[in-house]
UniProtKB/TrEMBL annotation:
Cross-referenced PANTHER family: INOSITOL MONOPHOSPHATASE, INOSITOL-1-MONOPHOSPHATASE-RELATED
Claim: ATP-binding is one of the keywords in the record: no
Class of the enzyme per the UniProt entry, highest EC level: hydrolase
Keyword hit for Nucleus: no
Alphabetized Pfam families for the sequence: Inositol_P
One GO BP: inositol metabolic process
Keywords, comma-separated and alphabetical: Hydrolase, Magnesium, Metal-binding
Binding sites annotated in the UniProt record for Mg(2+): E73, D98, I100, D101, D226
EC number: 3.1.3.25
Gene Ontology MF terms: inositol monophosphate 1-phosphatase activity; metal ion binding
Cofactor: Mg(2+)
Protein name per Swiss-Prot or TrEMBL: Inositol-1-monophosphatase
Organism name: Paenibacillus pectinilyticus
Length: 272
């Protein structure tokens, strides 16, 4: 194994260890009374558990990898440029963290939330780890190294027809209003695809496409921490992930369309 591969292998193993520790912390706190704060509106929330999970992850990374940069939701999310930080990504290794993806689900004790950690080298996502501490499912993917759930290889589904497609989407906080774009898009899918779900944790939704449980997922206005990890996992599982124009998705893109690949062009044209 060459030196870079061995180094990145060690990073990946550490990332798995860190998310499991964060998962344990979250599960220890899940039944405590939560202090819930609104950010942009009533669907954009943060709890002290999000913050503590993020502190734990940042602490481990800073200690073990002091030369790597970190971008994380609760530290960097307030910065105007955070959505576009990766237009000109810093060189070297970086960690992109969502300490709880699916905060609303976490607050309501719905078992669909995760810790999402993506690792990039010179701006390109190379590893992803997404861990649901309730179901104890850990998805991991490594550029040219495959995608796994709890160590078992995964791949996207084989649905060939829109009528067989189970899709998911979600609302960005600012689109949580009457006549939102998403509601109109779901309307277009109605009666054509098998069904549409709104599950509420983008990182896990991408992993569900990667493991063939969903056929596709689309979403506008996600942040790098929602996507960085799931992107690698989905690609390594054989899926397609593009922007609305069908070009390979990059972390600064606004619209994300992910699928099993087979139905990708249809989804792009339906969402135009
Ligand atoms: C949210 C989730 C949700 C998506 C929202 C995100 P958060 O992340 O990924 O599925 O629809 O747009 O903001 O705030 O729970 O980390
Ligand atoms: Ca959030
Ligand atoms: Ca998120
Ligand atoms: Ca979050």
């Amino acid at each position: 194994m060459n030196e870079q591969l061995a180094y990145e292998d060690a990073i990946m193993q550490d990332a798995i260890r860190y998310v499991k520790e964060a998962g344990k912390l979250i599960m220890d706190l899940i039944n405590m009374p939560l202090h819930i704060q609104e950010k942009k509106n009533q669907s954009d929330l943060v709890t002290e558990v999000d913050v503590r999970s993020e502190q734990l992850l940042r602490g481990q990374i800073t200690r073990d990898y002091p030369t790597h940069w970190i971008l994380s939701e609760e530290t960097d999310g307030g910065r105007e440029d955070s959505h576009h930080t990766l237009l000109e990504p810093p060189a070297g290794y970086g960690w992109i963290i969502d300490p709880i993806d699916g905060t609303i689900n976490f607050i309501h004790s719905l078992a669909h939330f995760a810790i999402s950690v993506g690792i990039v080298r010179d701006g390109l996502p190379i590893c992803g780890v997404v861990y649901n501490p309730v179901t104890d499912e850990l998805y991991a993917g490594r550029k040219q190294g495959g995608a796994y759930v709890n160590g078992k290889p995964i791949q996207v589904g084989n649905e060939q027809e829109l009528s067989q497609a189970l899709l998911a989407t979600g609302f960005q906080a600012i689109d949580w209003k009457p006549n939102s774009v998403v509601v109109e898009q779901i309307g277009r899918m109605t009666g054509i695809v098998r069904s549409v779900r709104i599950l509420g944790a983008a990182s896990l939704d991408l992993c569900l496409v990667a493991s063939g449980r969903l056929t596709g997922f689309w979403h506008d206005g996600l942040y790098p921490w929602d996507v960085a990890a799931g992107l690698v996992i989905l690609q390594e599982a054989g899926g397609a992930i593009t922007n609305a124009a069908g070009r390979p998705f990059v972390l600064s893109d606004n619209t994300l369309i992910a699928s099993n690949g087979v139905l990708h062009q249809y989804l792009i044209s339906m969402l135009k």
